[in-house]
Known about the structure:
alpha+beta, four-stranded mixed sheet, 8 helices, 30% helix
Amino acid sequence: MKFVALSLIASASAFAPSAQLSRTSALNQHIGSGGMADTRNPEASVNEDPRKSISAAPSFEEYLKQRAAQDGAPAAAAAPAAAAPVAAAPVAAAPAAATGTGGDVLSTLQSLQGPGEVWGADGIAVGKEESDLRGYDNFGKFFDLIQSTGVAAELQGAGPFTIFAPTDPAIASYETMRGPVDARVVKMHIVPGLISSADVSSADLTSLGGEKLTYRYAVRKHFVNDAIIGEKTFGPYSDYPIDVACSNGVIHGVGLCFAM
């Protein structure tokens, strides 16, 4: 009986999984919250040897615009851009300044064209493609509020003033969720001084009403009070305008009301 028992134990152990040491090839790598090695893009860097340089990767929105431009251009014209990706990346990371009318901040804001918006899923019901242009989100509501709240009187003169102008949908969302926009909210979007989009991270962001705005950098984007500065749109249409030069200041379009 003892021999039979030992034979059964030996047979069972043959099918038991053997203990093995866990090994990983991800040495010296940061392990993310999901238990996998962190494979996010490294920071851009320039090396004396160009082959070791790392260019700034474009955002998803920037990638879509680059692809749309390549699809619409002749193959011969697209080839040089593909041959020199390192040189092309900085251009995508620094959007070109929008062109102002040469007037003051108020007259420029009144006629400024906002970002182009596509139909998305709503277009299916009306026979439109999701990528078709639906229209432009302009700044008429914010311009009217500057007038109706009396803030326009404080924008007269040489300035300079930096205006973070919310689009019409941004104002509509605030009014739906928070109520009417008053002078305090309007002044939150106006900062005395001339601040370009490149300097927003280091500038004094104290609003016309004396409130301190909050800057942060995340996911390769610049935020002021949670609104993206230089936000990209999907498709080949215009982005949120930034660095719109005026005779007494500059305008940056934003897609979120600062008081949200």
